[in-house]
TrEMBL record, chain A:
Gene3D superfamilies: 3.30.390.30, FAD/NAD(P)-binding domain. One of its GO terms (molecular function) is oxidoreductase activity, acting on NAD(P)H. Residues 6-309 form the FAD/NAD(P)-binding domain. This is Rhodocoxin reductase. Its cofactor is FAD. It comes from Methylobacterium frigidaeris. Residues 402-425 are annotated as: Disordered. The lineage of its organism: Bacteria, Pseudomonadati, Pseudomonadota, Alphaproteobacteria, Hyphomicrobiales. The keyword Oxidoreductase applies.
Automatic annotation (TrEMBL), chain B:
Pfam families: Fer4_15. SUPFAM superfamilies: 4Fe-4S ferredoxins. Keywords: Electron transport, Iron, Iron-sulfur, Metal-binding, Transport. Signal peptide: none annotated. This is Ferredoxin. Residues 1-24 are annotated as: Disordered. It comes from Methylobacterium frigidaeris. It comes from the Bacteria. The keyword Ligase does not apply. One of its GO terms (molecular function) is iron-sulfur cluster binding. InterPro entries: Fe-S_cluster_ET (IPR051269). Residues 1-17 have a biased composition (Low complexity).
């Protein structure tokens, strides 16, 4: 099936790389790419880093690959609905685009501050899109007296690092006991906290902001249990929700956690059956991961968007039976406070972490995560070249810890990783 | 657009006027598109030697690069792509005309 019409809903990394993979694998038909933002596909990782510091203009982040696609672009035109039986998308401009096959790659959006009136105060930002970054960078250029960041996940911490590099006072508030605790646990997160504090960030852990206050513009945040933080710029960094609202009524298994799909990236209906001709990839796709007991996961990872979109493209062209179940090893990176943090595998549910090479004392180490005695993930801090050696042990579920006698760590001592309590599976 | 390496703390918005926000182009000048797969990057720094104006390592292994170098830097950027031992750099030289919606 290399002709007909393929529509891609979503014009970010997964949509672009899916379109490229379709063409690279010989699709000669009509290709339509629908995007809610007016911009051609752009790269998000710089937005929380060098775009905020002003070193890279937001408009410079457009991704390579747009030029040669022979696609019709419907940018700035959100998809409003899916007519599953009629095989068509309804667009915000009133248009209707019929398809033979559809790739859903609508990604995710920043989780907003839950009180809409407070979220509308001037000076309250989220950070997900290029326009978000442009607005935030403009707010920073006005040299606010203090920047408050709500949430110490990767976006919150990267933003804190960038904004400190501008010389602005920064406070980060998170209910968790450490930054990055949800992804890395409080052991490794505690190391990062030390770097944040050394960089002059006011890190408030185990704390929660209940309200943002101000007249027209935000002036302060009120803390649970009393107390306030004066701030005239707030970055709400509370994670992301998947863009599945437009699929309401289409009978697919979709919610704020993602659109369920199978190992061939086929979207599943409410009864869990694959829907012919409708596929999903990237942040929006919740798929059973074969390396983790087919647990459904939706990954906000750059590498996943690239690999899963290519996988979906092959299944779309050659048929879902022609591909192995999608099982790319999860991987991501983050840079902040002079640290290059890279990760392989999934830490969720890990019951132990051990530093097996290097040492936090030297600022360069590799930590491995175990679950029930098996290796499930590895994280390098300023030690990226050590990381690929752990891909095999993670894929194989090797005994944990997978090595002893590493540099600086002759006898690794596993300890509880300090990850949040695992939700009932 | 990358700051010189001595500039620890660039002025906010200092580069914001370099490119217009949507097109990424200035009239009469064309720009390449560069993206580095930073999962793959191992900080071998060969790109930094090949195109020092466009690729910089910060700290031990944080690669900072210019995602939209001017076309006049094509030879250096191509050298960087070729020099990368883990093949992590992708470049697109020309924006083919984007087709209009049907």
């Amino acid at each position: 099936m290399r002709d007909g019409t393929i529509v891609i809903a979503g014009a970010s990394l997964a949509g672009l790389r899916g379109a490229e993979a379709l063409r690279a694998n010989g699709f000669t038909g009509r290709l339509v790419v629908v995007g809610d933002e007016p911009h051609p596909p752009y790269d998000r990782p710089p937005l929380s880093k060098h775009v905020l510091t002003g070193e890279i203009p937001p408009g410079a982040t457009t991704l390579p690959g747009v030029g040669a696609l022979r696609a019709e672009w419907r940018l700035g035109t959100p998809a409003l609905g899916l007519d599953r039986d009629g095989r068509a998308l309804h667009l915000a401009d009133g248009g209707r685009v019929a398809f033979d096959r559809l790739l859903i790659a609508t990604g995710a959006r920043a989780r907003p501050w839950p009180m809409p009136g407070e979220a509308r105060l001037a000076g309250v930002h989220t950070l997900r899109s290029r326009d978000d970054a442009t607005a935030l960078a403009a707010g920073l250029a006005a040299r606010p007296g203090r920047v408050l960041i709500l949430g110490a996940g990767f976006i919150g911490c990267e933003a804190a690092s960038s904004i400190r590099a501008l010389g602005l006072p920064v406070t980060v508030v998170d209910p968790a006991p450490a930054p990055l605790a949800g992804a890395l646990g409080s052991v490794i997160g505690g190391f990062v906290a030390g770097r944040m504090e050394a960089a002059g960030v006011d890190v408030r852990l185990g704390a929660r902001v209940t309200h943002l206050e101000g007249d027209r513009a935000v002036r302060r945040a009120r803390l649970e249990g009393g107390g306030t933080i004066e701030a005239d710029l707030v970055v709400v960094a509370l994670g992301a929700v998947r863009n599945t609202g437009w699929l309401a009524g289409a009978g697919l298994d979709a919610d704020e956690g993602g659109l369920s799909c199978d190992g061939a990236c086929r979207a599943l209906d409410a009864a869990g059956r694959p829907v012919p001709g409708i596929f999903a990839a990237g942040d929006v796709a919740r798929f059973p991961h074969p390396l983790y007991g087919n647990r459904p996961v939706a990954l906000e990872h750059w590498g996943n968007a690239v690999a899963q979109a290519a996988h979906a493209a092959r299944a779309m062209l050659d048929g879902p039976d022609s591909v192995e179940p999608y099982g790319e090893l999860p991987a991501f990176w983050s840079s902040q406070f002079g640290l290059n943090i890279k990760s392989l595998g999934l830490t969720e549910g890990a019951d132990a972490v051990a530093i097996v090479q290097g040492s936090p004392r030297t600022g360069r180490f590799l930590a491995v995560y175990g679950r029930a005695g098996r290796t499930v993930a590895a994280v390098s801090v300023n030690a990226g070249r050590w990381l690929p050696a752990y891909e095999g042990p993670i894929r194989d579920g090797a005994l944990f810890p997978p090595i002893t006698g590493g540099a600086d760590q002759p006898r690794p001592e596993p300890m509880p990783p300090g990850l949040p309590a695992h939700e009932a599976a | 657009m990358l700051p010189d390496r001595a500039a620890a703390s660039p002025e906010p918005g200092r580069a914001a006027a370099v490119l217009p926000p949507d097109t990424g182009k200035l009239a009469g000048e064309s720009w390449m598109r560069v993206v580095v797969d930073l999962n793959r990057c191992q900080a071998y720094a060969q790109c930094c030697y090949a195109a020092p104006e466009r690729f910089v390592l910060r700290g031990d292994e944080i690669l900072v690069y210019d995602p939209a170098p001017p076309a006049s830097d094509r030879a250096a950027v191509d050298r960087a792509v070729q020099a990368c031992p883990v093949r992590a750099i992708r470049v697109e030289h020309e924006d083919a005309p984007t087709e209009r919606p049907a």
